[in-house]
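S1.2 Input.
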Amino acid sequence: MHGSRRKRTDPVRQDRGPVRYGPPALDPGLPALPELVGVLAASAGRTRPEPPGGGTALREAARAYWQRRGLHGGSEDVVAAPGASPLLFALMAAHGGDVLMPRPCPAAWMPQARLLGRPAYLVPTPAECGGIPDPYALLETVRRVRAEGGSPRLLLISVADDPTATVAPPELVREVCEAAVAEGLHVVSDETWRDTVHRPQDTVLLSPAEMCPDDVTVLADLGGALTPSAWPVAVARFPGTGRSAARRARVLDVLTALGALVAEPVARAAAHALREPAPVTERVRRAAVIQAQVASAAHRAVLTSGALARPPQAGRHLYADLGPLRSRLAALGVTDSMELEEYLTDRLGAPAPGGHRFGDELGALRVRLGTGVLLGSTPEEQTESLTAVEPLRLPHVAQALSMFAAALEELG
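S1.3 Output.
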């Protein structure tokens, strides 16, 4: 897992800031589900894309998926797109106005707002979790923006969060949503990671759409839990109101203008995954168990080094604050999150995007650490990790964790 350590006298790398060099999708570290590969392969001869917003089968599968999670509606309330980024772009374009989001937030959110020329405001998160703004900070930000002549209309949140890997407590989600709705904001809830919760029996995840059904649009990139990220597809569920129907129509216009259409083979595989047959649900369950174990081990290594991190509750990553190691990092020439990203990416041999990618301050020494890469670098190792009773005892996993811990211990 180690890469060669870059000399600090090397030329400045060009991939430290531009959006095009943003963090890649988080590696699950597990092979694609053979059943989904079979569905995709069987449809490979279908050369036409789905219609804008997705075909009937895909939208109906998404509707049923959400209904099983307590979110009712019709397939006419669903839109599909080739990935979360074009879908979020279309949603923001359809709503207009200024955008608010928690700090930190997913790496794609701020660039989407910039592309649209929309003012975007980052709101501090509560101490308990990431993914949602502190309710009081949200109200203060809304009032300040309006006092300065702004027009806040949209709040983006993620109850199971990237980059912090936390799950927002239901009571805080309710406070935030009620505050947002009272201020006239529409909420977009990114629930990409909801099916990756590590310990679902101990963690309550409540969708904002359950609390404020007329004021929340739910977004989910299926690459979070159901399909490989190389098969781009995401779905959105709109409220069943006349106003939302008009916004959905505008979203379809934007997706059409962008040519953002889902490939039919991908749509068929996605629809199959959304129907959740037994092999799919078992893979999702098993992946969450494995990711919980490896993420907990990585979290222990982070804390042992003297750095800080909230306990990971979902996803295949954690968000570490290396501020307590600032003196040692400064001696290595690392003084901000861009330099930290560069240093740890080289040291770990895997992407370690700095906090600036997620809206955090450049001077804060924060970094997102993927944990899926610890499960193996070859299909054979990944398959072994998937089927092992105790994956942390596998030689390749144990070695990867040892090298991960050693890279952090050097900074302590």
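S1.4 Remarks. Confidence is low (pLDDT under 50) at residues 2-13.
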